[in-house]
Structures are given as structure tokens and as C-alpha cells.
TrEMBL record:
Biochemical pathway: Amino-acid biosynthesis; L-tyrosine biosynthesis; (4-hydroxyphenyl)pyruvate from prephenate (NAD(+) route): step 1/1
PANTHER family the record matches: PREPHENATE DEHYDROGENASE, PREPHENATE DEHYDROGENASE [NADP(+)]
Keyword terms of this UniProt record: Amino-acid biosynthesis, Aromatic amino acid biosynthesis, NAD, Oxidoreductase, Tyrosine biosynthesis
A GO biological-process term: tyrosine biosynthetic process
Class of enzymatic activity (EC top level): oxidoreductase
Organism taxonomic ancestry: Bacteria, Pseudomonadati, Pseudomonadota, Alphaproteobacteria, Rhodospirillales
NAD found in the keyword field: yes
Catalytic reaction list: prephenate + NAD(+) = 3-(4-hydroxyphenyl)pyruvate + CO2 + NADH
Name the UniProt record assigns to this protein: prephenate dehydrogenase
Length: 298
């Protein structure tokens, strides 16, 4: 099963967590021949065995320490809340010169949780492939997930530049476009573009579910258009998203404050029949939609 192409970037890649993102990365690494050996560790019940059966890796088990031994790249692909315990456990087993990276949707807290447990000589290169779906588990991954999407790296000023380049090259070879920013900026940007939309979706679907029985059943039966789109997002993994909100608390609360103020202004406009206010906002947002589409096509 081991692939040994001459263009392999890494000798042994250890993926800790082999759900949607870990399994997509395993598939993409295999497809592009980027590692000689892929070892995975996952504590989910039966997940490691399923990853092996799917042919995603050369070795699989529950023990992260065993997976990282001899690895030149360790990629943390678990919900972000698990990062600290994993880093504490694997720290002593990491080879000098090894790179530790991650795919977490939150960056500042992840760095705070992981960095203190890494020995000197091990390079931390935090990252976030901004590509995903509402699905989870090793069966839901696919090699093309990352193609044409952004990968944001948030290295510390002290991070070894060669280590950053190597992680950037990995994501580039699986099709991503690389952007570098500081962790706080990342967390603020993602709070509005990803975390708040998920919170809104969870709220709308929760509100619909709490309607009187006869109404809530009709909502499900006749759900179409907008509401259906929200149910897709609200079907995302509960543990992953619990960890995102707990670990990007400040940025999410700040953006939620602004959002609720804007929502209250809209509520007022509807109450007082201020059609001009509504139409002006909807005209502005339509232009933003157009700009987003054009940016994607560029
Ligand atoms: N789902 C998405 O669309 C995206 C997710 N991310 C980030 O990727 C990470 C993983 O998310 P998904 O792959 O979607 O989740 P997932 O739920 O599909 O996979 C997570 C895996 O981690 C395993 N796991 C949990 N705790 C563990 C531990 N202590 N040790 C070993 N394995 C453990 C679980 O058993 C599961 O198999 C998260 O940090 C998330 O923020 C980043 C981009 C997109
Ligand atoms: O499925 C969707 O619409 C997503 O937004 C996927 C996603 C989830 C989390 C991320 O950090 C990045 C992308």
C-alpha cells in the first residue's frame, strides 16, 4: 500500500483524526503521492479500522503516540477542543525537526493550546483549509475537496520559514491557494464568514423545531429554498461546532453583538413600514452577492 514516488514531500505523515477533513487529506496525499507512509490515529469507535478498510492509510490505530513516532509531518484533524490533550500526549514522542500542523477552524486558541506542549526543535505551522461540507466521518471525505479553495496559514513570527513553505507546498499540491495571516485576523474573518452563518442556521432550524407541533411538521414537510439550505448547514457535526464556538468566543460574541443590533434595526423598519430602509439594505446585499460571485470566477 505504501507509495514511494520521487516527488513525495514527506516520508511519514501522521493524521490524528480521520473524519471528513483527515480522510480527504489522506485521499489527496495518496492521489498526488505526497508521502511515503500515511499513519492515522483516531479514537472514534471503529474509525481507525474503517480508515484502513477504505484504503486511506498504511497504518491505523487509536494511539496518536504510535502514529507520530518517526513522522516528519503530524496533522491534527480532530475537533479543536481535543488539541491540547493530543499535543500533551504526543509532545515527547515527536522527532526533532518534525512539523506539527492542524486544520482547525479556529487559530488563536489552538496555538495557545498546542504550542506549550511541543519540544524545542519541533515546528508548529497552524493552518485552516477553508473547504468542507456538513458531513463527517472517514466515508464522507473526497480527494477533490480542497481544489481551488483557500488555505489560510497562521505561522508565528518565530516559526521556521522552511517549515511554513513545506506545509504551504502540501496544500498547494492538493489544489489549494495559500494565504498567510495572523491568528486573530483569521478568527475575526472566520467569525463573520463561517461561524456566524452556522450559528444563524442552528438558530433558525432550532426555532422551527420549537414551533407548535402541527406547524413544525409542516415546516419539515414543505421545507424549500432558504430553509432547506439552512438545514444543510445545521446538519453539521455538533462536537466540531461546539468546539468552534467555545474556542472563538471573543470574536463570535463581538460579531454577534453587531448582528443583533442590525437585526433589531431591521425589526424596527418592518414594524414602522420603512420600506426604503429595507430596499436600501437588500440592494446593497445584492451587490455584495454579485461581488462574491465575480471574485470566485476571477
Ligand atoms: N467539517 C468541515 O467542513 C471543516 C472542518 N475543519 C476542521 O477540521 C477538523 C476536523 O473536522 P471534521 O473532519 O469535519 O470532523 P469529523 O467529525 O469528520 O472528524 C473528526 C475525527 O476526529 C476524531 N477524534 C476526536 N477526538 C479525537 C482524539 N482525541 N484523538 C483522536 N481522534 C479524535 C473523531 O473520532 C473523528 O473521526 C476540525 O478542527 C474542524 O474545525 C476545517 C475545515 C472544514
Ligand atoms: O459546508 C459548508 O458550507 C461549510 O462552511 C464548510 C466549512 C466548515 C468549517 C470550516 O472551517 C470551513 C468550511
Amino acid at each position: 500500500m505504501t507509495t514511494a514516488p520521487s516527488s513525495a514531500l514527506f516520508d511519514r505523515v501522521a493524521l490524528i483524526g480521520v473524519g471528513l477533513i483527515g480522510s480527504s487529506l489522506a485521499r489527496a496525499i495518496r492521489r498526488h503521492g505526497l508521502a511515503r507512509t500515511i499513519a492515522v490515529a483516531d479514537q472514534g469507535e471503529g474509525v481507525a479500522a474503517r480508515a484502513l478498510a477504505l484504503g486511506l492509510c498504511d497504518e491505523a490505530g487509536e494511539d496518536a503516540v504510535a502514529a507520530v513516532r518517526g513522522a516528519d509531518l503530524v496533522m491534527l484533524c480532530t475537533p479543536v477542543g481535543a488539541g491540547e490533550a493530543i499535543a500533551r500526549a504526543i509532545g515527547p514522542a515527536l522527532a526533532p525537526g518534525a512539523i506539527v500542523s492542524d486544520v482547525g477552524s479556529v487559530k488563536a486558541r489552538v496555538i495557545e493550546m498546542i504550542a506549550p506542549h511541543l519540544p524545542a526543535g519541533v515546528h508548529l505551522v497552524p493552518g485552516h483549509p477553508v473547504a468542507g461540507t456538513e458531513k463527517s466521518g472517514p466515508e464522507s471525505g473526497f480527494a477533490e475537496l480542497f481544489e481551488g479553495r483557500w488555505c489560510i496559514l497562521t505561522p508565528l513570527p518565530t516559526t521556521d520559514a522552511r517549515a511554513v513553505d513545506k506545509v504551504a507546498e502540501l496544500w498547494r499540491r492538493v489544489g489549494m491557494v495559500i494565504e498567510t495571516m495572523d491568528p486573530d485576523t483569521h478568527d475575526k474573518v472566520l467569525a463573520i464568514t463561517s461561524h456566524l452563518p452556522h450559528l444563524i442556521a442552528y438558530t433558525i432550524v432550532g426555532t422551527a423545531a420549537d414551533l407548535e407541533d402541527h406547524l413544525s411538521q409542516k415546516v419539515i414537510a414543505f421545507s424549500a429554498g432558504g430553509f432547506r439550505d439552512f438545514t444543510r448547514i445545521a446538519g453539521s457535526d455538533p462536537v466540531m461546532w461546539r468546539d468552534v464556538f467555545l474556542n472563538n468566543r471573543e470574536a463570535v460574541l463581538e460579531i454577534l453583538q453587531r448582528f443583533t443590533e442590525d437585526l433589531t434595526a431591521l425589526q424596527r423598519a418592518i414594524r414602522w413600514g420603512e420600506g426604503d430602509t429595507l430596499e436600501a439594505l437588500f440592494t446593497k446585499t445584492r451587490a455584495i452577492r454579485q461581488a462574491v460571485i465575480e471574485a470566485k470566477q476571477a
